[in-house]
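Show me a record, fold above all:
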Amino acid sequence: MKFILGQKMGMTRVFDEDGRSFAVTMIKAMPARVSQIKTKEKDGYKAVQIEAYKTGEKEKSIRKNEFRVENPGRYKVGQEITLKQFKKEELVSVQGVSKGKGFAGTIKRHGFHRGPESHGSNNVREPGSIGGGYPQRVVKGRKMPGHLGTDTITITNLKVIDLDKDIMLIAGAIPGPRKGIIKVYGSGEIAEEVVDTAAIEEQLAMQKMLEDDKEKKEEKEASDTTETPEEVK
């Protein structure tokens, strides 16, 4: 298993050799090293703990995170964790904490619709009825106003578009604010090339139309250049 701690730098757009554009998120790999190895016998589970640090006049620890691995014995305490273990076209999973948006109502938090604003109605942004005659209480799990965001979200099977030194470009959006710390891990699986059949059919149809137009133009030019018989006096 491959893993790294990174910092979300923002989003941009890149183009491949065929001119296709991809929305990507830039992740900057943080300097990290193995700080602890946990085994089944001693800790009850297998994991590798890595510690991200900030370099400068005095080295400072920033974050510690654990990654579950099947074979923690191949890691050593103090081993540097770098971005070199990842490759282009590889599928990875990312985990981050979503943006905190404070207390929110049902419209923003759950996508509820507004109520009528005319004919004396005062129920515009209120949630409406939250219970019935039985049971005489609010049912557990009812969608209500409350805290929105700051949830741990994991997105799987994202494609690594490019790697450059300590910068990783991953296709798609990633949870969390800018400069938020992201966990990136993967098994080394390579992404399969997705064939866009609709685009290919459209390209073939366009090519056939251009060829037909060219043939018609050539036929017209040939008919205009043919010699006409002399008029009989």
Summary: The chain has a mean pLDDT of 88.
